[in-house]
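Sequence in, structure out.
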Amino acid sequence: MPADLQLTFDFLTDLRFNNNKTWFDENRKQYEKARTVFENFIADIMGRFKPVEDLGNTTVKECAFRINRDVRFSKDKTPYKAHMSAVIGKGRRKNMDRSYYVHIEPGACMVAGGIYMPSSEQLKQIRAAIALKPAKLAPY
């Protein structure tokens, strides 16, 4: 983990226990620093993808999700997410093709890859590829 990413984890930990607009507004400078560190982390990952994955002209801003939650239809009315995340792919956050998801949250980080909601044709191709070489999906 990059050393400065700890700043982001510290902010997210504090946010988890102070998830309200007043606290967030008072700590906006810390949020902006934490977001910048996260965006630099994502930019580094995207740079490492270049030899193996064509991301086109996709920028970090197009990949990273907002920290604000949509609370309109949720029972949980906390205004902010206690994590930061991004979808890295040629189609940006709305990517419906192959992409990678990076989620950082104190105690619950993850990286995932795949196709979100594949079309029936894509699903058919995925299943055929798995059927040809099922050992590639064997657990390590």
